């Protein structure tokens, strides 16, 4: 439905939106139950992990040393050494004990991934279902939207996106 010129749930609750007013996908939270599904993203866990530098696997603090916080990313087609500072991702950091499990199990990482130590990052937007405005909004695409875009009013977010402002590549064996 539409309320106040933006997408809304009919029975919207205060926790359905974040501090920026972004509407988030509702998903049950049952910590400790079930088994990990490395191919699926749990919207609340992903958002908390990104916002608080928590491990995407176990939810404990991500590994941090003098070089920064540990992130694993699937290798792009370009040589990772050419990646510019300011790379954007929706994949949270990891702790050292979970890094090898994530590398083996996460479909996004596949067989080729890189390890980064990130010194600073900025929350820049969300990824989610974009709806066409109107009296009865209709989902039209899955997109990444920056916070400063008016289109963010028509998204049900599923993932928080951060920009990795300062990072260095590290040898995965020396994470």
What characteristics describe this protein?
seven-stranded mixed β-sheet, single chain, 175 residues, globular, 9 strands, mainly beta
Topology of this protein?
Elements: E1 2-3, E2 6-7, E3 23-24, H1 43-52, E4 64-65, E5 68-74, E6 87-89, H2 96-105, E7 113-132, E8 138-146, E9 155-170
Parallel strand pairs: 3-9
Antiparallel strand pairs: 1-2, 4-5, 5-7, 6-9, 7-8, 7-9
Description:
Strand 1 (2-3) and strand 2 form a beta hairpin. This protein has one domain (2-26, 43-174). It starts with a strand and ends in a 5-residue tail after the last strand. With 175 residues, it is mainly beta. It is globular and about 55 Å long. The mean pLDDT is 89. The strands form 2 sheets. Strands 3, 4, 5, 6, 7, 8 and 9 form a 7-stranded mixed beta sheet that branches. A two-stranded antiparallel ribbon has the order 1-2. It contains 2 helices and 9 strands. 11% of the residues lie in helices and 36% in strands.
How would a textbook summarize the main sheet? 7 strands, mixed
> What's the β-strand tally?
9
Strand fraction equals 35-45%
Structural class: mainly beta
The proportion of residues forming helix, as a percent range, comes to 10-25%
Domains, number: 1
Beginning-to-end CA distance, first to last residue = 47 Å
Q: Mean pLDDT, as a whole number? A: 89
Shape: globular
